Amino acid sequence: MAQNDNTRYGEINRVVLVRKLLSAVKADFNSNSIAEKGGIIFLAVLFAFFMFLLIYGGKKATQSRQWQPIKGRIISSEISERRTESEQGSKFIRSAKVVYQYSVNNKKYTSTRISFWKKTYAEISIKRYPAGKRVVVYYDPKNPKVSVLDKGLSIGFYVLAFIMLFFTSLLVISLVIYINKKYEYVIIMNNAENHHARQTESEIDCKNEY
Questions:
Q1: pLDDT of residue 129
Q2: Closest residue by Cα to residue 158 from 46, 59, 54, 65
Q3: Buried-exposed string 184-202: b where 16+ CB fall within 10 A, e elsewhere
Q4: Contacts for 181 with CB less than 8 Å, ≥ 6 apart
Q5: Would the pLDDT of 141 be above 80?
Q6: How is residue 117 annotated by DSSP?
Q7: Residue with more model confidence, 141 or 43
Q8: DSSP letter string over 57-109?
Q9: How far apart are the first and last CA of the chain?
Q10: What percent of the chain has pLDDT over 70?
Q11: Is-above-0.90 flag for pTM?
């Protein structure tokens, strides 16, 4: 019975410590300015976006190796330019827009995706996929509207994966160090509170005896 009471007390004590730890982390976050909070949220969203892009794109690129090949045709192939402004001035970003068509079970599909991860210069893409050219299209049997002309992964995926792994490791290590320091602080404060409570109880007991 005493052992069960001790176990229950230990579980309650751990719950209290976790709640105090979460409160301390929340207090740290709330102590930041609005700009700092916005920066933290922005970085978290950006990190989550790149992780999603890495996982989803990598998964699809890997699956595309097993996709069904089918004959298709390039409908249009052109280079588009987009102007961007920066502190260094304005510049034009050139990108290839290749539109191709294919049929699965007598249903026509149109797509512009050349690949998931294989980055190619616009001029090379246009020369490789001119309008009217017959091509091999690789489509997802479970979702025929998803397709690529160039299947598989490229070195770019592994470079991004390494960078994300590196920053994830730094983030996890920093988070573990931060949580550990906060946990130590919470334990010290909790022990101080318990000591103060016991001391107060002892003083009350002494007064009651007199």
A1: 92
A2: 54
A3: eebeeeeeeeeeeeeeeee
A4: none
A5: yes
A6: S
A7: 141
A8: HHHHHHHGGGSEEEEEEEEEEEEEEEEEEETTEEEEEEEEEEEEEEEETTEEE
A9: 34
A10: 68
A11: no
